[in-house]
Amino acid sequence: MTPKSAAAAAQATVYGYPRQGPNRELKKAIEGYWKGRVTADALRATAAELRAATWRDLAGAGVHEVPTGDFSYYDHVLDTTVMVGAIPERHRAAVAADALDGYFAMARGTQDVAPLEMTKWFDTNYHYLVPELGPDTVFTADSTQQVAAVTEALALGLTPRPVLVGPVTYLLLAKPAPGVAADFDPLTLLDRLLPVYGAVLADLRAAGAAWVQLDEPALVQDRTPAELNAAARAYRDLGALTDRPRLLVASYFDQLGEALPVLAKAPVEGLALDFTEAAAANLEKLAAVGGLPGKRLVAGVVNGRNIWVNDLEKSLATLGTLLGLADRVDVAASCSLLHVPIDAAAERDIDPQILRWLAFARQKTAEIVTLAKGLAQGTDAIRGELSANRAALASRAASPITRDPAVRARTGAITDADGRRSQPYGERTVAQRTRLGLPQLPTTTIGSFPQTDELRVARADLRAGRIDTAGYEERIRAEIAEVIAFQEKTGIDVLVHGEPERNDMVQYFAERLTGYLATQQGWVQSYGTRYVRPPVLAGDISRPEPMTVRWTSYAQSLTDRPVKGMLTGPVTMLAWSFVRDDQPLGETARQVALALRDEVADLETAGTAVIQVDEPALRETLPLRAADHGAYLDWATESFRLTTAGVRPGTQIHTHMCYAEFGDIVQAIDDLDADVISLEAARSHMQVAHELAAHGYPREAGPGVWDIHSPRVPSEEEAARLLRTGLKAIPAERLWVNPDCGLKTRGWTETRASLENLVGAARTVREELSGS
Question: Which helix (H) or strand (E) holds 667?
Fold first, then answer.
């Protein structure tokens, strides 16, 4: 096909779409099912209605193929585990008894059975359920869910394209099952897995799917020759099948790199590449391999992970360069639109001038359709859209909210000394232990306590004017008093105020910093039924007034035990926001760090002895390519130290991280120079404690002994067993006892029982250590 005919054939498509519904209907239905208020049939009906509404909207907007298989009750990787029959032994009885309940047991666990481990999906804030595999794993095909979705879409008169996690990425994301040797490589199961994928592909073809998308984002990471050979073998074998739909292998989040020539040569009919994160690199490599003659190229030119309007003319230029490199060029977002909210038009509190700058999933779909039309019919066909787009881009570039000279002057004056504590850890720990007087194996929590229905009602009442500020604050004071009293009674050593006044650990601060915008309907899935509203970082950042001092000081007035001041760190403030794309991330991080530094100083002045600056996104934000790690970690660790280094030696700085793979950033964790770090460890069986020990981490650490993302209550003995495992890696004088993460999503009943067991476990192990 010539470039001209390739352009004429251009169509619009998307890889996936937000699952929750415009009013989070899916979340409400699933949580209602868990509580027994919604039947399984009603849940399935809600899900089917949401899928149909999404597909109709996409088709009505001009999308040629609608994605099926991207919808999930909890997680698409867990759905793949079900599809290939890799059900862990401990969950098989539950799945056999009731497929839906067994599915949720794998995701959340039960009182008797632990869930699958959960960790971050590449460098996003989405969490997936980690497959557990071993040499005895037997795969069996179950394409029920995938075939049903195709059938539903066809019944609506639509063209479906099933979206599956590819076999290579699935195995690369997996871990050895409990009891399997830690050095077991799940990729050795590839030859066993491929026939199962072949069976699913045959089922989808029989159901009426003309194309199937196989997502292989793991191939944008640095891969060994053996892993690249596995990818070549996988797509050689799948491509050689005769009873299959046409195959579109999709990559996203970065350049395909060394895997591009492997997939370009594979006997598949199409590739999907990201031309936003690494446009130049993908273009260069695509040209170097001779393009994709005879194949379909889906070009991801609209950023699927951020919310700024696309530069349509720039994207059209990129698309124009691709026309001679493939038989057909289609237009898409860079990845699934799962990572952005649904509709910017639903926002009522954002200045209309600023709203022009924003594109959520619905607006991005319109951009994709516009670009496909422009590519196929020429720019005259989209003259009005291009004019409006130029005006929106110019409006943002010229807006005074994007630049604050005072903020820029302050960041320009930063020196190396601003990021160094006045004493090394070995000296300041003496001052801290003298000041705090804590026992061996001190107990604490991560920060938040349950956000009860009463708290949510109070917040809604305040917004609606049903109560005044004084009435609302009285409710907050009462909640803090209850949280402090409970912790004292339970015997926790370092307390928290419970954060009842905070709607979200990022949004709360964003609403109190200049340069941020808050949304009302900008919900994005983090995991399962947990949705967050990432704020929009639109301009330069500063702190007009203290944000946390008042409530921390009030909590401290109720007890003689230390109460931690709780802040969200600069990297996480960026990672869990939609960041500006008009300046380097490191520069934005310094602005946030200086604003937080002011808050740290005010907390210390108010007498706060322990200040925790959470950075759960430090690992998550690590670039996918090793060549980019150094520059990122330099500014990331610098921004944390800039936040915390101004305190006196006797003030103890904590940080917290959760649900990520920490082994390859232990040096960066060390470079933060925090006095204490708490980390998720329960689902991974204290893996991180051993990683810290292998590195020689010299400071204090609290690997979690309670998995708070499951409703089950760990017994005292279970927590003690994990604690004893932690002691094999971290000496008792440097080991803390805490949950994996904050308790916001848990209920009070399970929180009370679990924390009582946690404190009991610490007491038991202390007695074992003392020999009493």
Answer: helix 666-671
Tell me the C-alpha distance between 708 and 753, whole Å.
Answer: 12
DSSP secondary structure string for all residues of 694-750: HHT--SEEEE-SS-TTSSPPPPHHHHHHHHHHHHTTS-GGGB-B--SS--TTS-HHH
CA 694/CA 671 separation, integer angstroms = 16
Roughly what angle, to the nearest 10 degrees, separates helices 279-288 and 312-322?
10
Tokens of 715: 């017994």
252: left (phi over 0), alpha (psi -120 to 50) or beta: beta
Q: Which residues contact 475 (CB under 8 A, 6 or more apart)?
A: 454, 455, 458
Nearest to 441 by CA among 771, 723, 137: 723
Identify the DSSP state of 88: -
Q: CA–CA distance from 120 to each of 178, 264, 526, 653, 689 (Å)?
A: 20, 28, 9, 25, 19
Place of tokens 């509580």: 35
pLDDT in tens, 650-682: 999 999 998 667 888 999 999 999 999 999 888
Q: By three-state DSSP, how is residue 290 classified?
A: coil
The Cα–Cα gap between 320 and 706 comes to 53
- Dump the DSSP string for 124-172: SS-EEEPPEE-TT-------HHHHHHHHHHHHTT--EEEEEE-HHHHHH
HEC string of 626-638?
HHHHHHHHHHHHH
**What span, in angstroms and rounded, lies between the C-alpha atoms of 511 and 527?**
23
Strand pairing category for 118-120 and 127-129: antiparallel
CA distances from 444 to 316, 490, 735, 742 (A): 54, 11, 11, 11
Q: What is the pTM of this model?
A: 0.90
Separation of alpha carbons 233 and 239, rounded Å: 10
Residue 215's H or E segment, with its range, is strand 211-215
Residue 266 has pLDDT above 70, yes or no: yes
Q: 498: phi > 0 → left, psi -120 to 50 → alpha, else beta; which?
A: left
CA distances (Å), origin 763, targets 98, 433, 716: 40, 19, 10
The closest of 655, 708, 714 to 679, measured between CA atoms, is 655
Query: Do 539 and 402 meet the contact criterion of CB atoms below 8 Å apart?
Result: yes
**Spacing of C-alpha 297 from chain mean position:** 28
Tens digit of each residue's pLDDT (9 = 90 or more) over 70-107: 999 999 999 999 999 999 999 999 999 999 999 999 99
Q: Catalytic site residues?
A: 709
Q: Is 208 left (phi over 0), alpha (psi -120 to 50) or beta?
A: left
